[in-house]
Design brief:
about 350 residues; mainly alpha; Glycosyltransferase; two-stranded antiparallel sheet; 13 helices; about 5% strand; 6hp_glycosidase-like_sf; 6-hairpin_glycosidase_sf
């Protein structure tokens, strides 16, 4: 992102965040009465607008939608996911946007091109049974993604850009590689030819470079325990049961009485983009959508009691608020601090909770 573009982006983002913060401070969060009612209301409202993420996150974010897709389908919104996926494909050419905006010609790469946009698109299209329909476009986008972000020799997604944690300065190598591995597995299973055909083994080996014997490092040079490096691996079922058990044991360090913390330690000042300096601690808090994805992954590998316990912890904290928050403090209160307020009615959290209920 150039200097001028960065200035425009951060100015616009700052205004959105401060406006949202002011609204939450004045009015609080929408209370739907129960999580069941909140889920019904949030998903129904978002389905009419192409499944936007919610709050100050304007637009449709493929990374959110790929984790929300199963829950949306379970709630009866397969057609919405399909139509949204079709539209997203039509918007992509040579830039991997992170957030897409209907009714306007302005899509955004926030704060840089989305390293996870392509694999997220593959995964959400697959859930809506629209992957084969877009086979040619997917093959073209796969080649572009490979050229921009993938180190074929290492078998790792090493390219810089925006991904799940867009506040972090360093590439989220484990998360980005895991998501591409999940997408490549789906493409190979469906028989859709792309530049990644036959490369699942290489990507799996590349991800293995980040395995430290207990969990996946978030990227080369950092062994800090982080959920984005390990929860998607469980959610998409990318590892053998023995490895999953080791990861789950390791993530136990992050479990609290109010849910799973997102990262073991706060980022240093050098590890975040300047815009996030005042909120370096928010990755050490509890993010309900991460917890619900974790619970789904736990169920996948047979840790049913642990999944139930994690879900109940988070539900207990969300119930008094009456909605699905983007994140809340380890103490259980909504994260509202220094000009940033957690989003309420957060679509992906509601959808993942709905998916968990359907298992």
């Amino acid at each position: 992102m150039g200097t001028l573009s960065a200035t425009r982006y951060y100015s616009r983002e700052l205004w959105r965040r401060l406006a949202h913060y002011g609204h939450v401070r004045r009015h609080g969060y929408p209370d739907h009465g129960s999580l069941e009612r909140a889920t019904e209301t949030i998903l129904a409202e978002r389905a009419t607008g192409g499944v936007e993420s919610g709050g100050h996150f304007h637009g449709i974010w493929p990374r959110d939608l790929c984790f929300a897709a199963r829950g949306l389908v379970a709630a009866g919104y397969r057609d919405t996911v399909a139509k949204t996926g079709d539209w997203l494909v039509s918007q992509l050419s040579d830039i991997f946007y992170t957030d897409f905006h209907t009714g306007t010609s302005v899509n955004a790469a926030t704060p840089a091109e989305g390293v996870d946009t392509f694999p997220a698109l593959v995964l959400l299209l697959a859930e809506a049974d629209r992957l084969e329909y877009h086979a040619n476009a997917i093959a073209t986008l796969a080649a572009l993604h490979d050229r921009k972000f993938v180190d074929s020799e290492l078998g790792l997604v090493t390219g810089a850009g925006s991904s799940w944690w867009d506040s972090a300065a360093a590439p989220r190598e484990a998360y980005n590689t895991a998501l591409l591995l999940a997408a490549t597995g789906v493409l190979e299973c469906r028989g859709i030819e792309t530049v990644f055909t036959g490369r699942s083994g290489a990507l799996r080996k590349g991800l293995g470079r980040l395995w430290n014997g207990s969990y996946f490092d978030e990227h080369r040079g950092s062994s800090v325990l982080a959920c984005d490096a390990n929860v998607p691996v469980l959610y998409f079922g990318l590892v053998e049961p023995s490895v999953a058990e080791t990861i789950v044991d390791s993530l136990g360090v992050l479990e609290t009485s109010n849910g799973l913390r997102l990262r073991e330690a706060s980022f240093s000042r050098r590890e975040v983009h300047p815009f996030f300096l005042l909120h370096r601690d928010y990755h050490t808090q509890i993010w309900p959508w991460n917890s619900f994805a974790y619970a789904v992954g736990l169920r996948r590998y047979g840790f049913d009691e642990r999944a139930r316990r994690e879900a109940e912890r988070v539900e207990r904290c969300l119930a008094p608020v009456g909605t699905f928050l983007e994140l809340y403090r380890v103490t259980g209160e909504p994260y509202v601090k220094r000009g940033y307020a957690a989003v309420g009615d957060f679509t992906v959290a509601a959808a993942l909770w709905r998916e968990l209920q359907s298992l």
